[in-house]
């Protein structure tokens, strides 16, 4: 009897040890995939063609897809178990996925999305929130959280997501990887669950800009074309004021990289707020209805409101019947928006759509000559898990003001990692006009190494922040001077240019611009003196020579006036 009891204890001990080992293995597996995957599977590419034919363009690469893409024989979960219970398994595979597999890539699984792919936090109480590999204990961002985490954790080479109001750009920014939102309509949505038809785009993540571009060539079906360099890179100064980290840590990296690769002459600065206010006339009607003349709302905030409304309105058009029938239990933040009653007249909806069309035209006009608009991807660092910060009105306003530029205009945008600040990823975004996808992918591919080099220099630099911020402040003052000059406010322009010179007195353009304002006021001696200083700083400043010639002519120095153009 004692022998039997001993054997029983041995067996029980072995059983418990086995359970312990299995549990450890399961926990290890969870840690290894960072909670990114809903389901593992395998879609293998066709055999490579025999030589001398070139291999498939994506040969050897692996990828994952967000749980909104149909794959034959598998459930498309849409981030909610009630959706799975009420829908059959897919009977075919989304053409986007098929195209990538036929291009040589292997699909290895489906990844977590926010509930109904609607949120921006990356949280999902049903399947678990994926761990952010770049910032432990912080949100991964959504809606395509699992897809971003899979790339950030090196589980796949690239992944697919859906970007409606930032579903690819936000997780790319939070996880410190590249995220591409193509031009609206550039990639087929067939076989993908819709969220908001007029805003949805199929986007993708990668760590390597070469892979990001190769996937783009396959999905966008781009023919061969000669690569073009940007003719202007426009820093959206006002957008950078939203940042909750030092502005120079982001903007100066882009400025220095641009100067090294293309020269300072292609750098421009723009107040996007004012530009859109003047170029999107339908905003005025929208503003008057929102404010009743009592307060002024910024143009980017109004456009963010348009984006959020279209998301809610079109989501309900697509899924209201299912929600009404099934009554799924939803996260309160999502539920409040989805169940909100929208009693909006048709005329207002048409006005929203007019704003969308005017936005596309405005951005196209701004960036038509191979231009890039530079903005922060997201204003804030990734919030901590379990916090409510991301739900606050101020957080949402800062985020959506930036995200709405591409979402509403339909333009293409790439989120680019720029290292870390206080152990959180930093991200900047490049935007190109609608249809400029190849140009944007090529530009980022060209600039990426230089940008990362500048990140390293910035992080190691011992130059005080005050010196850098003075340079940035000087550029802002110069742009204000340019705006005043356009409005024929000559004295005001001189004041701004003088401020720029005080902040950074080694820039020839500031003196040359002030000289032009002095000419308009008839202050020819001051204009000549400023031109002399500009030429001392930059012997190739053509405008300074021409303006000095004008000043000398008005002062009666005809011989010297004639000599200036001859020097050129």
TrEMBL record:
Keywords: Membrane, TPR repeat, Transmembrane, Transmembrane helix
Name the UniProt record assigns to this protein: Amidase domain-containing protein
Keyword Nucleotide-binding: no
Listed Pfam families: Amidase
TPR repeat coordinates: 508-541
Domain of life of the native organism: Eukaryota
Lineage: Eukaryota, Viridiplantae, Streptophyta, Embryophyta, Tracheophyta
Residue ranges of the TM segments: 6-23
Domain Amidase intervals: 55-441
The keyword S-adenosyl-L-methionine appears for this protein: no
Species of the source: Carya illinoinensis
